[in-house]
Amino acid sequence: MRIKELIIKILTIKEIAIASRIALGVMFIFSGFVKGIDPWGSTYKFIDYFTAFNMMWMHQAAFILAIVQNAAEFVIGVALVLGLRMRETAWGALLFMLFFTPLTFILALTNPVTDCGCFGDALILTNWETFFKNLVMMVPTVIIFLYRNKYRPAYRAIAEWGWVAAFTVLILWVSIHCYRHLPWIDFRPYHIGADIPGGMTVPEGMPTDVYETILYYEKDGVVKEFTQYNFPWDDTTWIWKSSESFLVVEGYKPPIQDFSITNAYGFDITEDVLADYGYTFLLVAHQMNKSNKQALKKAEEIANYCNDNGHRFYCLTASPSGDIEQITSELGLEYEICTTDDITLKTIVRANPGLLLLQNGTVIGKWHNNDMPEVDELKPNLLSFALKQQAQKTKKKLNQVVYLAFVFIAFTFFHFRLSEKTEN
Fold this sequence. Notes:
By secondary structure, the chain is an alpha/beta fold. The chain contains 13 helices and eight strands.
């Protein structure tokens, strides 16, 4: 008996096929969803990889590729769980895994980008962890592929394709909605309620980095390596030449590591801003020449409000001074502009520009430029205003999620009921 026929005979147990389909499907749904609600995050990750592999000419395609990949993962996952178009879905899952498993192996060896980004910011994995995860998931992928002709469709082909199209439209709508506003779920360390100073500190008792130092000493023309424990401290005939240190054990890394604010005069005002018990608005425009100019101009009104009411207002950017001067002159901007690391700004808010409201270093408000508050909406008690707005946004997002979840669960229930009738 040929090996393929033997494998197929062994895997005739229906429960194995179902478990493989659902396990792989859930992983695909989770991966596609957490990245789908943060399309900018996926775009930045594509750009990181293109830069690492010297493919800067692909930067312009990063956003489209991010949207397409996230949607494809989500739809493949849904199709696996519901058993829709299993022949095509099995091929899609297999091609996905055959492409990314060798790729993650290469990434693990070369480590051009430390975070693989396969689960967005929801779950951070190293490249080696991602590779081994893909190896494990290849098992259900192969099982599903071998069983692809044994799955019995619950609907006609046109109906199944219709549902696949409907779920594709759904995830595309979610991604575009989160692109035009903010991600439904903020997994980053600058989410509303985050204590920025606390996120920058290492808690007491957490492990720190452990380094080992190699010392090079020379004697009689021969250079030998020593450690800090066995170097020839009592033999003065050895002459020190050089030393190098390398990381042995990586310690705890605080979630916020590169947050700093430098004003136009070159002074670091980070501590001063974060320690302020009053209210501070931060307009985050990582590249001002690519920012929404209408939003930059609208922020001038909020800055004037802050000046009139004793609050602080800063614009944070990574733009070069030439771009800053050009934009401020063109739009007549008068608010103070400071510089911050570009990657940090992209992490803080998925918008260009976006707006943050801080009190004593804690994020109490966050807005996309499409949702920036009007000046006449702002109240003397900005904390109360921010909490009320956040409650309204949370309620709206919750309603959307509950509605979509209800539709999905209802469809899944009737789908499996129909599948049972078809099999009987």
